[in-house]
Design brief:
Distance between the termini: 43 Å
Helix content: 10-25%
CATH superfamily: Clavaminate synthase-like
Shape: globular
Number of helices: 7
CATH class: Alpha Beta
Order of helices and strands: EEHEHEEEHHEHEEEEHEEEEEH
Number of domains: 1
CATH topology: Double-stranded beta-helix
Structural class: alpha+beta
């Protein structure tokens, strides 16, 4: 997939940190990208894990069309819903349902970090987030490179985690800090899966330390105490600043990230202000992940995340 060194680059790629994040200039996402530009954007996305586009000002339809150039959009959010007229889009509003229990959470250095919907047997391949209402300051987003984090482990620790598998779950119906609406949604679309702790990236072949703090609940085969301590070591490790990039949003900006090789964080500083913040997200259909031993993810509860059209048919059949 990589372009040869002799091929002139049709876009400008500006890296933001050593390990992750690049700004892409010279593209207009309001219309279909020429084939070479799309290929170069894809290459940059794989290399830098998250790429950013400034001043694009897409509407909902253009957002979905842009996403389709890189994969098949899922339903907006398999558990938490979607926009009525655009089933491919999830509203990432400041005071959305997902944030309702933030004051009840135990706060640790890794609280809030996550990859999108890892409780599904086939988490989304990528996410594309669009800024619409942006505060003058605050409300940034972080991403971290899970391949760089894996490579920085000692050889002994890499050998240990290579053979582990983890249980990922979305929400909990027993969580008393959640509203009835949230618990009803979790019940209707319960998701729980077993993924390798170290995955092999389907396109790059890189080893990924796949430890999404918000959804990874335990390590298979370890006692609860062992599991918690190992996970805390790994969660602390992946959020070290040298593997991360912090993005300051402006209205019209787009972030496009590899959901297979990153986790991300929206710091809660926005709730300490009166500023509003509204973004919209499209995710792309993914495949089950594969471990170092070649064994794929396994579903414990729930069905795979399908394309938006297929999800709507499934929902209609269930009514």
């Amino acid at each position: 997939m990589s372009l040869s060194q002799e091929t002139p680059r049709s876009i400008e790629i500006v890296p933001l940190t050593l390990h992750i994040g690049a700004e892409i200039r010279g593209v207009d996402l309001t219309k279909p990208l020429p084939q070479q530009q799309a290929r170069e954007v894809r290459d940059a996305f794989l290399k830098w894990k998250v790429v950013f586009f400034r001043n694009q000002d897409l509407d909902h339809a253009q957002h979905v069309a842009m996403a389709r150039q890189f994969g098949e959009p899922t339903i907006g959010h398999a558990v938490l819903g979607h926009l009525d007229d655009y089933p491919e889009i999830y509203s990432v509003a400041k005071n959305r349902l997902a944030n309702e229990n933030r004051k009840a959470q135990m706060v640790t250095p890794w609280t809030g970090w996550h990859a999108d919907i890892t409780a599904a047997v086939n988490p989304p391949m990528a996410s594309i987030l669009r800024g619409v209402t942006i505060p003058p300051y605050g409300g940034d987003t972080f991403w971290t490179n899970l391949n760089a984090a894996y490579m920085a482990l000692s050889p002994t620790m890499r050998g240990f985690v290579d053979g582990l598998r983890g249980i990922h779950q979305f929400g909990s119906r027993a969580d008393t800090s959640r509203s009835d609406e949230y618990k009803d949604r979790v019940k209707r679309r319960a998701l729980e899966s077993e993924h390798p702790i170290v995955t092999v990236h389907a396109e790059t072949g890189e080893r990924i330390l796949y430890v999404s703090p918000s959804f990874l609940k335990s390590i298979v085969g370890l006692t609860p105490r062992e599991s918690q301590k190992i996970l805390e070591i790994l969660w602390e490790h992946i959020t070290r600043p040298e593997y991360t990039v912090r993005f300051k949003w402006n209205e019209g900006d787009i972030a496009f990230w590899d959901n297979r090789s990153t986790v991300h964080l929206a710091p809660t500083d926005i709730f300490e202000s009166d500023f509003d913040r509204q973004l919209y997200r499209v995710t792309l259909v993914g495949k089950p992940l594969v471990g170092v031993d070649g064994q794929p993810s396994k579903s414990i509860e729930g069905v795979p995340i399908l394309s938006a059209a297929e999800e709507l048919k499934m929902l209609a059949a269930a009514e």
